[in-house]
Every structure is written in C-alpha cells, then in structure tokens.
Amino acid sequence: MTDFRTEEVLTLPNILSIVRIAVSPVLVVILLNPGRSLSVLATVLFLLVCLTDWLDGYLARRMGVVTVLGKFLDPLADKLLIVTALIMLIPLGRVPAWMVALIVSREIAVTGLRAVAAGSGVVMQASRLGKAKTVSQICAVAPLLLHYPFYGIDFHLVGTLILWIALVITVWSGADYFINFFRGTVRSTADHTVHNQ
C-alpha cells in the first residue's frame, strides 16, 4: 500500500484539484434552483474552477511536485466537475439524457481501463484526444450552464452544438484509449513470446 505523506498530499497543485472536487456539490446546490442569475453564477464558478485544471498542471511541473496522488486527483476532479454539471442539466431540459449517459459511460470505461493498466504496471498518459475531449466538454458545459440569451446570443444553442462535437471527440478518444491499450498488450505479449523462444 502506498504511504502518502502529508507534504505530498498538501501540495498546491493537489489542493487545487481538491478544490475542483469540492465545487462539484456546490454546483449541484446552485442548479437545484435554476434561474437567470443563478445560471450566471454557476457558469462563472464552473469556468473559474476549470482554470485551475491548467494551473495545477503548470504548477506541478514548475514546482517539481508531480506526485502519484496528483496524477489520480487531477483527472478525477475534471470528470467529477463536468459529469456533475451535465447530470444536473438533464432535469432542467438543457441536455439529452442519452448524450450524458454516453459521456459518463466513456469516463467510467476509460477509468476502469486505467486501473487495469496500472495493475499491470502500465501508466496510461492522457492523449491529445483525451485533452481535446476535456476542453470540448468544458466549452459545451459553460454555455449550457448559462443557457439564457445574452447580447443576442443563444447560449443554449451554442452549447448544444458544441456538445455534439464534444460527444464525437469523447467517444473517439475512448475508443482510441482501448485500441492503444490492446495494441500495446498484444505487442508486449508478442515480444515476451519472442524473448522466450
């Protein structure tokens, strides 16, 4: 069992990831009472917290405090924040439940795949498609949270269009993770067989 020391847990990048996780239930409370002003509040809070996703990665590299816990917390925080927002938007009629179900299923499947890979001693780094997936989801969720028209812009329509793009990238990146994993597994098995011959 890994022994996490206090100084490893309480690094600034990890604290920022924990803040993102803590904001998820706050979003739930805000979205339980939909309205124009609360939608603006939810959007601003969501975007501010999403900025910490870039910031914690930057600080981790800059400060040289990239930790095993941080590698776990960072993607977990992203997934919790985005999935929580999407699920809360379903009863408000802002997103189709089936689209959210596909996105959530992909996240669970890839998380499970990472666990299997980690159990085999393989660390699956975030791919470019995976990063594009996260960015596209954030770009879709923000206008869907805002929802109401402002300055003549139909933010709900904008968010819906981007969500379709995000859905394609989400499914594509998920398939890419599995293809690369099984290709790597087959290659490793083949190398092992040749080595033993």
Word description of this protein:
The chain is mainly alpha-helical and 197 residues long. Helices cover 80% and strands 0% of the residues. α2 runs parallel beside α4, α4 runs antiparallel to α5 and α5 packs parallel to α7. The longest helix has 42 residues. It is globular.
Quick structural gist:
With 197 residues, this protein is mainly alpha-helical. It has helices at 6-9, 12-31, 36-63, 68-89, 97-119, 128-146, 155-196. It has seven helices and no strands.
**What is the global morphology?**
globular
Quick one: CATH class? Mainly Alpha
CATH topology: Four Helix Bundle (Hemerythrin (Met), subunit A)
CATH superfamily: CDP-alcohol phosphotransferase transmembrane (TM) domain
Q: How large a portion of the residues is in β-strands, by DSSP E?
A: under 5%
Helix and strand pattern: HHHHHHH
The biggest beta sheet reads: none
Stretches where pLDDT is under 50 for at least 5 consecutive residues are: 186-197
Radius of gyration, whole Å: 19 Å
Helical/strand content category: mainly alpha
The CATH architecture comes to: Up-down Bundle
Key attributes of the depicted protein:
7 helices, mainly alpha, disordered C terminus, 197 residues, single chain
